Structures are given as C-alpha cells and as structure tokens.
From TrEMBL:
Family: Belongs to the glycogen phosphorylase family.
CDD domains from the UniProt entry: GT35_Glycogen_Phosphorylase (cd04300)
Name by which UniProt lists this protein: Alpha-1,4 glucan phosphorylase
Modified residues (N6-(pyridoxal phosphate)lysine): 654
Catalytic activity, EC: 2.4.1.1
Subcellular location: Cytoplasm
Known role: Allosteric enzyme that catalyzes the rate-limiting step in glycogen catabolism, the phosphorolytic cleavage of glycogen to produce glucose-1-phosphate, and plays a central role in maintaining cellular and organismal glucose homeostasis. Phosphorylase is an important allosteric enzyme in carbohydrate metabolism. Enzymes from different sources differ in their regulatory mechanisms and in their natural substrates. However, all known phosphorylases share catalytic and structural properties.
InterPro entries registered for this protein in UniProt: Glycg_phsphrylas (IPR011833), Glyco_trans_35 (IPR000811), Pyridoxal_P_attach_site (IPR035090)
An annotated GO cellular component: cytoplasm
UniProt keyword list: Allosteric enzyme, Carbohydrate metabolism, Cytoplasm, Glycosyltransferase, Pyridoxal phosphate, Transferase
Species assigned in the record: Clostridium liquoris
One GO term (biological process): glycogen catabolic process
Length: 801
C-alpha cells in the first residue's frame, strides 16, 4: 500500500478531531494511539471487503482455524509493516512531533492464550494472510485475557487482564451476523413428513455476537478475518420487572450469567477440574462458528453435499472437538442429511492437531455434565461411538482394545478420541512428537487408521519475530542479502557465507550489544533492574511447568553461586540469567518455583562478594510484547525440557532466528533445529528419549541415587530446606519432596550433571567471541525453514487442499 505523507497527516488530524473533538496538540498519547489504529483500520477496509468478495466470487476453499486461544499480542506495528507503510507513517508522525514507537507501546496485548498453542494460532493467521490463503480464525472474544502477573514478595499474584478497558480499535462488532446457541433442555424425537426429527425443547438460548478483526497479509492486499464470539443474553439486558421491584442484583443476574461464557480465558493447563463453564465455552464458539460458516456456504449456491470441497475446518488441539458432533447435528437436524452423508462430509471437512502427550492435558468430560448441558450433542457422540466401536470390535474381536479406543469410556467422553475418529487428518507438531503419537500414545489409532497420522513441524512468523522485533538485525540482513527473505524466508540461508566474513561478524556482534543495552535501559526504567549489558544474556521464557524444568536451570545457577562463594576469583564470563513465566493459578508447584527463583535471585543479586559475576532476574508478566523485547537480545536460549515431553516448542525457533545459541535437550523441535544448524552450532545435553522411556517402562529411576552420589545436588537440595536461603525452612519443602520423596518425575537430578557440563561449555565457547558470532549467524541463516510460512504451505498441500 502507498500513502502520501501530507494526505496521511491530514487524515490523522481529522481522525483525532472526529473521535475526540480535540486538536492534535492537546490530545493525549493514548488518544493518538487509538486515532492512529482507527485510521489504519479504515485504510484496510477496502481490501478487507475486496478479499471477501474475491473469495466468494471465485468460490475459493475457505480454511477455518478453530482455537480456544489466539495469542496475537499487539497489532499496530505488525499491521503497519504488513501494509508496507510503517516508514512513511513514522516520518509523517515525526513531522507532527509524534514518536511512532511510543504510540505502539500504548497498545494492550491481546493476550487471549496461555502459551505456544495460542501463539501458534496467531503465527498461522499471519502466514495464511501473507501467503494469500483464504484462512480465518474462529475463537472466543474473552473480556479478560490471560491474567496479568505481578510479583509480590517473590510470589506470583494474578490480576485480571482487562485488555478491552480502553476499547479495541481493530475489531468490528457484527451484530447482524449474530447466531443463537442452545444449552440444556431435552430432546424430543418427533415424526415430521415421515422423517424422524429431534427437537430441542426448554433449552436456554443465548446469543453469540461476532467481533471481526482484520488479518492483514504482508504486501499482498489480502485481508483475512479473525472472528471472535461474545456471549450475550438473547433479548433483554436486565429483568425490568425485578428491577422495578427493587431486586437490583436479581435484575442483572441473568445477564451476568450469560456473559460469563466469554468472560475469561481459562488459565489452566495443569489439571482437569469440573469446569462446566469451559465446556460451555467450547460448545459456544464451535456452534457459533459452524453456523456462520454454514450460512456463508449456503450463499454460494452449492449443494450441501459439496461442503467439504469448499470448507476446511482445523481444530487446534481437542478443545474444539465438539465441532465433529455439532457439524453432524447441523447437517442432520438442520440440513436433513442422512447419517452416512453427514458423516462423510464431516470427516472430510475436519482435521485435528495434537499439541501434547501429557495425559493431564487430554480433555475428558464426565458424561452426566456433558449430557445435561448438551443433550442432543451427547446423542450424536453416543451414535458416533457406537458405530466406531462396532468397527473396532469387528476388526479385532478384542474387547480390551474396544474399551481403550472408545470415545465414551469410564463414565467420560474422551475428546481426543472424538477428534481422531471425526477427522481425516491427525497431526503432531514436530517429528519426535508425531512418532510418539503414532507408535506410543495413539498407537491403536494409527494402526486402525494407517493414513490419518502425519507430522507438521511448527513454525513462527519471521515477520513478527525478526522483521518487527529486531529491526537492527533485519536491516543488517537487508543490506547484506537483500530483503527477499521477508517473502521467502528460506532465503535467510544466503546469510550463511557471511558467517565466514569477519566484518559481518563484528556488525552482528555490535547489533546484539545494542539490543542488550536497549533492553537493560528498559529493564532499569521499568523494573529498576541493574543489568550489565556486557554479561552473557541467558534466557528461559515460557510457561512455568515442571516438564520444562526451570528448576534445572536454577540448580545450575545455585551450583555456580556455590562455586563463586568458595572461590570469588573463579574465572567465568559474567552471566545474567533471565526467567519469565506465568504459572497456572491452581498449579501449586509452579507457583512455588517462581518464589524459589525470586528467592535465589534476591540472594545472589545482593551478594557483593561475587562481584556481580552472575545475576538472576525474573521478568514479571511474560507476554508476547515482552517476548519481542527479550528475544532479540538473548544469547543463550534455554530449551531444557525432559526429552519426550515438549511437543515442539516454538520459543526455541524465535531465539535461533534472533541469533541466540540453543542449549537444549533432544526434545520436540530442538532435534530439528540441531539437524538444521549442525552439531557445531548448538549445545546438546541430557538423556535421550530411549532412556526416558526405559525409566518410565521399567520404573527403575531412583532420584535418591543422584542426591546421595553428587555432593552438588546434596548441597542444593539441602539448602532448599535448611533455612540457608533466608526464608522459613518449610517454604520449599514441597519442591524438595517432588524431587526426592516423589522421585523426580522429570529427571531433573538425572540430567543435572550433564546440564552443568553443557553450561560450562557455553562459557568456554563464549570466550572465543568471534567464533561464537559465527555460530549465532549460522543459527539465523538456518532459521528460515522454521518460518510458519513453510508450515502453513505443508498444511495447505497435505491437509486442506
Ligand atoms: C486443559 C486445556 C489445555 C491444555 C493444554 C489448555 C492449554 C494447554 C497448553 C497451554 C497447550 C500448549 O500450549 N501446548 C504447546 O503447543 C505448542 C504449539 O504446538 C507446542 O510448541 C508446545 O510444545 C506445547 O506445549
């Protein structure tokens, strides 16, 4: 898109007057941000309309990505970049004495996700639009996103994330596109024109109102749509009669109850409790999404039997698996299709991605809850299950197998099984993960459906994670190899020869330092942290979870600290360790881990004896926009999960793309990163999948052995409970227990020694700074294959097309 500077300035001034009746001189920075965002949305409206028209006129196949989470972060910067007008805007605003970077900082993050799964959905939206693929998001417009994390006295405190408080300029409320969603009631079989029909009676009907956000492609005039649904009462804001009687809280009770459906994102990935509201959320957005897709489809004038030829629905983990049953319901009850026809369409429309093998994250719903809330859907799931188990029984004559594979079993509905049976493709998110699904976790299903399973290694949008987050490095790349990599990320490989160029290495090093200085200044002014920009920046930012092993990182730090105390002249390269992580509010051990990190950080950072050689910082409220700040200045990327536990990881890709060295176990996509960059450009440690699986199978791991035989571990674990950390001695007893009495589920003690060695190797490698830079440049050069553009092309070719 082209903008004329003077015209833009006029538009902007007018916008401010129109929105706020203010002159630009008296207008607050926040109003300036909103006016700018609103103006940019105006600029995209025509392309948005045209994209939709084009899709309809060409009857292009539409892809709908169903996800409970879209962790998109901020949009102003990326929208300006994708429109190709950021430089022009920046100049024009600077004429008006406005700093664009400052305005961009005002935007609230759309934090509608927990972690990798939600961020992946956001990267996919960017890639689909940028590749000109007709792909759209379908999800929930949570009034509150993932909680805001504050740290008080070292503990995580959760504060509601009221991200919409000041408004959201990107979204458009489409009341005319609202649909109804039914809960509860009972199902009445009746005969209608000689056909059996299932009427839903006495149900509670609520209104789903869509809010659409434009998803702007990079330099291609494509504008796709992220449609997020909000729950509202059908026909009354509040009960006027109750209000007149003076029963004020009763008058609004109903409204509040309905609205609670889209009130808040469940920040809970640690355990599966009785979360009826979460089931409601799932049905709510799945049903609303499918109804609106069906309505649009019918306008094409194609027969319903061709639905799957024009529509692909992708379900992001099991959370939207109700789509299988809801699409069946719509096709049978509303479109009058027979079961077999409806089943053919449904299974050819839906595809499913699995994101975890951790059993506690595989959703299961108690039958009674499910049946009460969704009686008609339950009938359909029962029928799907009956037909499916008949087939399994027929094939294997083995009741054990039937029970293991059934969709309904042990009083529960297994959402993963529903998703597998109801879709034509099931994919894992990295090679190892897919192997584990095919040959371990979902082995029976892979045997039953030999062609359904496939791998699609995750990716990240290089436009946000390099072009936007690291402008200095992007400029250097542009100067060196041109800017073709922005559309063809694989072209980053053209940088490889420059790893051998001394002057290039120096320039690269300088940019890393500048990024580190910029972050240090930011951290000083925002958190009061004193950071030495010349130390190595060693970063672990991700959800807090035992399998991700923040504890292992911390144990090395505690060991290093012990060594420094014994010998203050110990020769190490100064290092700053950064942590950033939110813990699910109900995940007790994760929260204790945050307290432990902060406790150790306090002790180390205030000990003058070690001359500031190491420092530890916990960055509060890790989010997309914080990731954009810390990743470009990171030098060591901590990817240290227990082998087999991290499905893929995507932070690992973001770090390599910004020239950090990966310190990793052979888990998830780390393996593919290692294969891409070569053994000489990565530091690998820890036990491999075989050993992990052996331990689990033979139940012969004993963490006490490591505790008893390694004085370092003994020292560290004892210090957790002997008061030497300066907190009451029972503060960390449960972490201690998890590692010893409960036998260390994630093999932290087993991998400790290997990890310390790997960390020493990092220190050693860094001393040859020139060669270190060479390794880092190689990482950037090989990162293009991890662009989500590549991932999306594979989804498109193998699954959606
Ligand atoms: C119980 C509901 C539930 C379960 C798990 C909600 C949310 C989750 C997670 C937060 C899911 C998640 O983010 N998984 C991550 O997905 C990424 C994208 O595929 C992978 O890279 C990560 O390895 C995986 O942990």
């Amino acid at each position: 898109m082209f903008i004329d500077k003077e015209a833009f300035k006029n538009d902007f001034k007018k916008k401010i007057i129109n929105m706020y009746a203010e002159d630009i001189e008296e207008c607050s920075p926040s109003h300036k941000y909103f006016a700018l965002a609103s103006l940019i949305r105006d600029y995209t409206s025509e392309n948005w309309l045209n994209t939709n028209k084009k899709y309809t006129n060409n009857k292009e196949k539409q892809i709908y990505y169903f996800s409970m989470e879209f962790l998109i972060g901020r949009l102003l910067h990326s929208n300006l970049l994708n429109l190709g007008i950021r430089d022009a805007c920046k100049e024009a605003l600077s004429d008006l004495k406005i700093d664009l970077d400052e305005l961009e900082e005002i935007e609230n993050d759309a934090g509608l996700g927990n972690g990798g799964l939600g961020r992946l959905a956001a990267c996919f939206l960017d890639s689909m639009a940028s590749l000109g693929i007709a792909g759209h998001g379908n999800g929930i417009r949570y009034t509150y996103g993932l909680f805001e994390q504050q740290i008080e006295n070292g503990y995580q405190v959760e504060v509601p994330d009221n991200w919409l408080k000041e408004g959201n300029m990107w979204e458009v409320r489409k009341e005319n596109k609202a649909v109804k969603v039914n809960f509860g009631g009972k199902v009445m079989p009746t005969m209608e024109n000689g056909k059996l029909k299932f009427l839903q009676q006495d149900c509670e009907t609520i209104l789903a109102v869509p809010y659409d956000t434009p998803i702007i492609g990079y330099d291609n005039s494509t504008v796709n749509t992220l449609r997020l649904w909000s729950a509202e009462p059908l026909n009354k804001d509040f009960d006027f009669e109750s209000f007149s009687r003076g029963e004020y809280s009763k008058a609004t009770e109903y409204k509040t109850l309905i609205e609670s459906i889209s009130q808040v994102l469940y920040p809970d990935d640690s355990r599966q409790e009785g979360k009826i509201l979460r089931l409601k959320q799932q049905y709510f957005f799945v049903s609303a999404g499918l109804q609106s897709i069906l309505r649009r489809y019918k306008k094409l004038g194609e027969p319903i039997n061709n639905f799957h030829k024009y529509i692909a629905i992708h379900i992001n983990d099991t959370h939207p698996s109700l789509a299988v049953a809801e699409l069946m319901r719509l096709l049978i009850d509303e479109e009058n299709l027979a079961w077999d026809e409806a089943w053919y369409i449904t299974t050819n429309t839906i595809a499913y991605t699995n994101h975890t093998i951790l059993s506690e994250a595989l959703e299961k719903w108690p039958i009674d809850i499910f049946k009460t809330l969704l009686p008609r859907i339950y009938m359909i799931v029962e029928e799907i299950n009956r037909r499916f188990t008949d087939e399994v029984r027929e094939r294997y004559k083995d009741e054990n197998k039937v029970n293991n594979m059934a969709i309904i079993g042990n009083g529960q509905i297994r959402m993963a099984h529903l998703a597998i049976v109801g879709s034509h493709s099931v994919n894992g998110v990295a090679k190892l993960h897919t192997e584990l699904l095919k040959y371990q976790e979902l082995k029976d299903f892979n045997e039953f459906y030999p062609n359904k399973f496939n791998n699609k290694t995750n990716g990240i949008t290089h436009r946000r994670w390099l072009l936007q987050a690291n402008p200095k490095l992007s400029n250097l790349i542009n100067e060196t190899i041109g800017d073709s990599w922005i559309k063809e990320p694989n072209n980053l490989i053209l940088l490889k020869p420059f790893a051998e160029d001394y002057y290039f290495r120096k320039k690269f090093e300088k940019i890393k330092l500048e990024n580190k200085i910029a972050f240090s200044n930011y951290a000083k002014s925002t958190y009061g942290m004193d950071i030495d920009p010349n130390s190595i920046f060693d970063v672990q930012v991700k959800r807090l979870h035992a399998y991700k092993r923040q504890i292992l990182n911390l144990f090395n730090i505690m060991d290093l600290y012990r060594r420094l105390k014994e010998n203050p002249n110990l020769d190490i390269v100064p290092r700053t360790f950064f942590f950033g992580a939110k813990a699910a509010p109900s995940y007790y051990l994760a929260k204790k881990t945050i307290k432990l990190i902060n406790t150790v950080a306090y002790k180390i950072n205030n000990d003058t004896e070690i001359h500031g050689k190491i420092k530890v910082f916990f960055l509060p409220n890790y989010s997309v926009s914080l990731a954009e700040k810390i990743i470009p200045c990171a030098q060591v990327s901590e990817q240290i999960s227990t082998a087999t536990k991290e499905a893929s990881g995507t932070g690992n890709m973001k770090f390599m793309m910004n020239g950090a060295l990966t310190l990793a176990t052979l888990d998830g996509a780390n393996i593919e990163i290692k294969d891409a960059v070569g053994d000489e450009n990565i530091v690998i440690f820890g036990i491999r999948k075989e050993e992990v699986l052996d331990y689990i199978k033979n139940k012969n791991y004993n963490s006490y052995e490591f505790y008893n035989n390694d004085f370092r571990l003994k020292y560290i674990l004892d210090s957790l409970i002997n008061g030497s950390l300066g907190v009451p001695s029972n503060e960390f007893i449960d972490i201690h227990n998890s590692l010893l009495k409960n036998n260390d589920e994630f093999f932290v003690l087993r991998d400790f020694s290997s990890y310390v060695e790997a960390q020493n190797k990092v220190d050693y490698l860094y001393r040859n700074r020139d060669n270190w830079n060479r390794m880092c440049i190689n990482n950037v050069a090989h990162s293009g294959i991890f662009s989500s553009d590549n991932t999306i092309k594979r989804y498109y070719e193998d699954i959606w097309k």
